[in-house]
């Protein structure tokens, strides 16, 4: 069983005084978000992070890599706003910016209607079996 994912958005904004915001990470270490941005190139919006926390959603051990691979597949097929389905999780991703906009699990999907997406990607477990369904 994996722990809930905790991501803080990577930000290069400055404060009103013009200085860089203070970091919550101790010197010499990097935050999970920094590592994720470097390794996977994915970011989680504040909204997506709140949903992960509120819903206690945890990713499988290989979840970040599967999510990143699915985003790459969506990008290769011209996807802009994609629904990525992984196990019982759903992610809405802005493909161009590689930002997870929101996430939910099977219990939180409401009526199961997703709007304003142009593609669906199944992030299967087996490598090479990630499938893309375009909605054009």
Structure, described:
The chain is of the alpha/beta class and 136 residues long. The protein has a domain at 42-134. Helices cover 23% and strands 21% of the residues. The protein is built from 3 helices and 6 strands, in the order H-E-H-H-E-E-E-E-E. The chain has helices spanning 32-39, 46-54, 63-76, and strands at 43-44, 81-86, 89-94, 99-105, 119-122, 131-134. The protein has a 6-stranded mixed β-sheet. Strand 2 and strand 3 form a beta hairpin. The radius of gyration is 16 Å and the shape is globular. Residues 8-27 have low confidence and may be disordered.
Which structural traits does this protein have?
single chain; 136 residues; alpha/beta; six-stranded mixed β-sheet; 3 helices; 23% helix; 21% strand; globular
Unreliable runs, pLDDT <50, ≥5 residues? 8-27
Q: What would the average pLDDT be, to the nearest integer?
A: 76
Shape assignment:
globular
Instruction: Provide the succession of SSEs.
Output: HEHHEEEEE
Radius of gyration: 16 Å
Please report which band the strand proportion falls in: under 5%, 5-15%, 15-25%, 25-35%, 35-45% or over 45%: 15-25%
Number of continuous helical runs: 3
Would you tell me the structural class of the helices and strands? alpha/beta
Q: State the major sheet.
A: 6 strands, mixed
**Helix coverage percent of residues?**
10-25%
In the sheet with the most strands, the strands line up as: 1-4-3-2-5-6
- Kindly state the number of beta strands: 6
Distance between the termini: 37 Å
